[in-house]
Write a structure and sequence with these properties.
Elements lengths: L2 E6 L5 H4 L6 E11 L1 H12 L12 E11 L4 E6 L6 H9 L4 E4 L5 H10 L2 E4 L5 H5 L2 E8 L8 E15 L10
Parallel strand pairs: 1-2, 2-3, 3-5, 5-6
Antiparallel strand pairs: 2-8, 3-4, 6-8, 7-8
Helix pairs in contact: 2-3, 3-4
Length: 177
């Protein structure tokens, strides 16, 4: 089985075309973490052309909450969430150049088509792997919406975060029977 590496933000979009459905991927670099409530507050800002505390083009959005347990010892807890609940909010981010979404579970065919059209891959992992994923987080910085606690918008620095390609840029999808 192929194990690939991806660095975020993506500088070479051609690297995304090398990914195939069900490939294992190790993620490095900086990913943005957000959950439902954060995205609900950010989307109106995007629509109003307000500046955001992160760059969307080439970025990876990890649908997860983040808790800092002991920052001095790089101990964080992440709580991935189901992607399908955020499809409508993610659609706008795709149009601004989002290149990867990390989440859990199946999504609609309409959303998959939109991801494919916009050149965005869907990465994820089965539920129950939060402890493993949390160990790959080397730093977490709150970018905005601190009032939302562990659902604040964060930038995570990750190293060797394991994931699986759920949907590639060739139209293959792991949940399609």
């Amino acid at each position: 089985m192929t194990v690939r590496s991806l660095d975020f933000p993506v500088k070479n979009e051609e690297s995304l075309k090398e990914l195939k459905c069900a490939d294992r991927v190790l993620i490095y670099g900086n990913v943005i973490a957000a959950r439902d409530s954060t995205l609900s507050e950010i989307i109106p800002r995007i629509k109003a052309n307000e500046n955001l505390p992160f760059q969307i083009p080439g970025s990876c959005l990890f649908l997860s909450s983040v808790s800092v347990i002991d920052k001095s010892n790089n101990k964080f807890a992440v709580g991935p969430t189901s992607t399908y609940r955020m499809e409508s909010n993610l659609s706008l981010l795709l149009s601004f150049g989002l290149k990867a979404v990390i989440g859990k579970g199946a999504v609609s065919d309409a959303f998959l088509s939109e991801m494919l059209r916009m050149g965005c891959v869907y990465l994820g992992f089965p539920g129950g792997l939060s402890a493993l994923i949390s160990r790959t987080v080397k730093d977490a910085t709150t970018l905005s919406h601190g009032h939302l606690g562990n659902e604040a918008l964060c930038e995570l620095t990750v190293s060797e975060m394991p994931s699986i390609v759920f949907a590639d840029l060739w139209g293959d999808y792991i949940f399609r029977g």
